[in-house]
Amino acid sequence: MTTPRLKTSIAILGCGDVGSTLAYTLILNPICSEVILVDPKTDLLNAQVRDLGDATFRGNTGCKIRAGSHKDAGQADVVVITAGAKQKVGESRLSLLTRNLHILQSIFTSMSPISSHTILLLVANPVDILTYFAQKLSGLPPSQVLGTGTSLDSARLRGVLAEKAGVAPNSIDAYVLGEHGDGQFIAWSNITIGTAPLELGLPNFTPELKKDIAEHTRGAAAAIIASKGCTAYGVANIAASICKYILFNQRTVRPISFYQPSLGCCLSMPCVLGRKGVERAMPIILDETEQRELEDCAKNLRSVIEGAEREFGMRKD
Ligand SMILES: NC(=O)c1ccc[n+]([C@@H]2O[C@H](COP(=O)([O-])OP(=O)(O)OC[C@H]3O[C@@H](n4cnc5c(N)ncnc54)[C@H](O)[C@@H]3O)[C@@H](O)[C@H]2O)c1
């Protein structure tokens, strides 16, 4: 008889603002038996483990928290990568690429060998580009390497539409697709409010409102960063939900960043999430404008990838 697996574990690489908030979210809403935190700043790491550990003693969370190495992380069921520099006020996500790709390379060198069952979830920015490189560097199948992508932008979109329509956010189906960044676009043609298409569910919908909503969704992170220096609660909540869909094999449909063979990059499209990661892409019918936005977005991401491959000596030309 083989020994049963006693633990489910989520490793979080980087225990700064996002990583520690994610760990706290997982303690309050436990979905695994162990959270492993990894960070080269050992004083910070140990302090976070002690502080978060205090939140596990009230007795109704079965989740333990401990410090670990990159090697330990490589054996976890899910590895969430929040390690990396964050945007300063006015900075774009893409400007973080060189710094965060160096960090990503060093992570995979230290984590190897990675368990063939591990699912990687990228949070660090620019998340679509790092998801692409994480897949190359890890050697895992593309279905096991995901990025939070536009799932946070989509939640923000559902929030603003819910407020306008006077219904709960979970009564709305609405997807922001493409890049988690300036190249994102809203699949307006697919939005439903309860049982109704957008125009029926939101009778006061105008072109001005459409523009305002798109700007709000695109600019939400920058506005928060301008006032408090980071965003953490929203993305931590989204990352914790994605971990749950995976570990509970929940088969939930969400827009997340994953490899798109026909476009040659990672960007967000709807997919079914389960224990194997992306169980399958979920088809979506886009109108002509949305299809063009998708293609433009992929073209830009491809050119950033090619630039980074040149800079990091990963291309022959
Ligand atoms: N995808 C999203 O929606 C989203 C939202 C918010 C933030 N982010 C991104 O998440 C990242 C983290 O943001 P933050 O606010 O937590 O930053 P932070 O500076 O507070 O924390 C980052 C941590 O990563 C650690 N780190 C560096 N190299 C490491 C390595 N090799 N292994 C493990 N840890 C390492 C640092 O020591 C630091 O503690 C940034 O890139 C930010 O842009 C993404």
Distance between the termini: 53 Å
Number of domains: 2
The count of helical stretches stands at: 10
Q: Look at the structure and give the mean pLDDT.
A: 95
Biggest sheet overview: 6 strands, parallel
CATH superfamily of the largest domain: Lactate dehydrogenase/glycoside hydrolase, family 4, C-terminal
The portion of residues assigned to helices is 40-55%
Number of strands: 14
**Low-confidence parts lasting 5 or more residues at pLDDT below 50?**
none
CATH topology-level name of the largest domain? L-2-Hydroxyisocaproate Dehydrogenase, Chain A, domain 2
Please, could you describe this protein's structure?
With 317 residues, the chain is α/β, with parallel strands linked by helices. The chain has two domains: 139 residues, Rossmann fold (3-Layer(aba) Sandwich), CATH 3.40.50.720; 160 residues, Lactate dehydrogenase/glycoside hydrolase, family 4, C-terminal (L-2-Hydroxyisocaproate Dehydrogenase, Chain A, domain 2), CATH 3.90.110. The longest helix is centred in the C-terminal third of the chain and has 24 residues. A hairpin with a 2-residue loop joins strand 10 and strand 11. The mean pLDDT is 95. The strands form four sheets. A six-stranded parallel β-sheet has the order 3-2-1-4-5-6. The radius of gyration is 19 Å and the shape is globular. Bound molecules: nicotinamide-adenine-dinucleotide.
Could you give the topology of this structure?
Blueprint: E1 9-13, H1 17-28, E2 34-38, H2 42-54, E3 64-67, H3 70-73, E4 78-81, H4 97-111, E5 119-122, H5 127-138, E6 145-147, H6 151-165, E7 172-173, E8 176-178, E9 184-186, E10 192-193, E11 196-197, H7 198-201, H8 207-228, H9 233-247, E12 252-260, E13 265-274, E14 277-281, H10 288-311
Parallel strand pairs: 1-2, 1-4, 2-3, 4-5, 5-6
Antiparallel strand pairs: 7-10, 8-9, 10-11, 12-13, 13-14
Helix pairs in contact: 1-9, 4-5, 6-8
Keywords: NAD, Oxidoreductase
Family: Belongs to the LDH/MDH superfamily.
Domain Lactate/malate dehydrogenase C-terminal: 150-309
